[in-house]
Design the sequence.
């Protein structure tokens, strides 16, 4: 996709941030410091190539292949790279597996650390104060806002991404998914289930 | 620093409000904000820790009333000015009028895929053995540095257990301030909810952080 020119003809009506970013890009381009085509290429990467379908493939493979799941547990960076998912904000991956008695939830209370290589760019709520403030102190309350009510006895482990390790939750494989191939399994793996704010979908 | 970014356990921000079928970007300018921020990062003039510190150094009133891409852009302007790539005269004119520093490199479209695929690994080899072992009880340091740190306030002065001993990683508290990478060993440290939050804490809760070695003391 090329540079988005939606608002080029409405400069008098640009909202303040649109005007501010436009000015900054213009100045840096005039100075030869940035190449607008490189900006386009970055945007296109995260709009079309890097997103939660990557992570869903990792989870589906872990569900299907015990050897792969073991590798993912021991060396997530290498196991994920073997499927072609590497790079920025996925340099140091850790996979954390939900279990019948334990639910994992990932947050970055200090900024917006998120495993881009497998989940793409983080959603707005992940970067916003309500989630970042409450996930560590009231995870059950947060999960209920996602429609997820865990049994009272389920242990909750919250992973605050304070360093450069990036966490991918491997949700429990849903009942009724026996016999599905990896592509069909990947369709059950939602982005939120890999953050911990949801569960994998049950097959229809 | 005890800045606006340190949100763990804060109250009053309301419900999370997840969106159904949210778009990747909510405005065209957000796309440019992402791309310009990453392209400017590729100059090699600052590192991710200095970048995070610029964001958390925004005035709390600004930080809390800004969307995340707005925080990025405001901090990017600070970084560009600090490193000589942008002047107030440029911003006032809305076009390039100031002289400028020369970056180490300018990112070209053809190099984007390789740059993103490479990322920026932060692990570093360490000669020294780990000070702590898995299963060991530790206490996090109680401090209030005015500079950058990745030890959140809610996890300071708390008893926890080392779960995993990792390799060495660039030390953000130093790297953010151009004082060198000074890599230290990293540990995943787990705390009981009651240790962190005290009375009324969820009894089923454990919280972990990833802590550099100098954040930890033997318990």
Sequence:
């Amino acid at each position: 996709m090329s540079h988005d020119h939606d608002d080029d003809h409405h400069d008098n009506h640009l909202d303040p941030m649109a005007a501010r970013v436009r000015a900054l890009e213009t100045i840096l381009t005039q100075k030869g410091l940035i190449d607008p085509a490189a900006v386009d290429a970055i945007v296109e990467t995260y709009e079309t190539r890097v997103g939660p379908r990557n992570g869903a493939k990792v989870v589906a493979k872990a569900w299907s292949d015990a050897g792969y799941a073991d590798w993912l547990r021991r060396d997530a960076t290498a196991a994920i790279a073997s499927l072609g998912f590497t790079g920025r904000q996925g340099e140091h991956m850790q996979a954390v597996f939900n279990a019948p008695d334990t639910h994992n939830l990932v947050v970055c209370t200090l900024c917006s650390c998120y495993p881009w290589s497998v989940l793409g760019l983080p959603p707005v709520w992940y970067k916003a104060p309500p989630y970042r403030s409450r996930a560590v102190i009231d995870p059950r309350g947060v999960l209920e806002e996602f429609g997820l009510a865990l049994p009272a006895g389920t242990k909750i482990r919250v992973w605050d991404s304070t360093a450069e390790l990036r966490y991918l939750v491997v949700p429990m494989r849903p009942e009724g998914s026996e016999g599905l191939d990896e592509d069909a399994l990947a369709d059950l793996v939602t982005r939120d289930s890999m953050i911990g704010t949801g569960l994998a979908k049950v097959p229809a | 620093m005890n800045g606006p970014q340190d949100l763990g356990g804060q109250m009053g921000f309301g419900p999370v409000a997840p969106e159904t079928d949210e778009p990747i970007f909510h405005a065209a300018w957000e796309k440019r904000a992402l791309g310009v921020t990453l392209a400017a990062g590729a100059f090699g003039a600052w590192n991710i820790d200095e970048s995070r510190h610029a964001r958390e150094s925004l005035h709390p009133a600004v930080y809390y009333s800004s969307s995340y891409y707005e925080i990025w852009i405001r901090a990017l302007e600070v970084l560009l000015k600090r490193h000589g790539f942008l002047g107030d005269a440029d911003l006032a004119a809305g076009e390039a009028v100031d002289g400028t520093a020369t970056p180490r490199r300018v990112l070209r479209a053809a190099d984007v895929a390789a740059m993103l695929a490479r990322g920026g690994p932060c692990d570093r080899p360490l000669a020294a053995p780990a000070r702590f072992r898995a299963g060991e009880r530790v206490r996090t340091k109680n401090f209030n540095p005015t500079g950058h740190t990745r030890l959140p306030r809610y996890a300071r002065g708390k008893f926890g257990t080392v779960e995993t001993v990792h390799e060495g990683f660039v030390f953000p508290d130093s790297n953010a301030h151009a004082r060198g990478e000074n890599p230290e060993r990293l540990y995943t440290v787990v705390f009981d909810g009651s240790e962190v939050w005290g009375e009324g804490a969820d009894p089923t809760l454990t919280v972990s952080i990833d802590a550099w070695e100098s954040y930890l003391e033997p318990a």
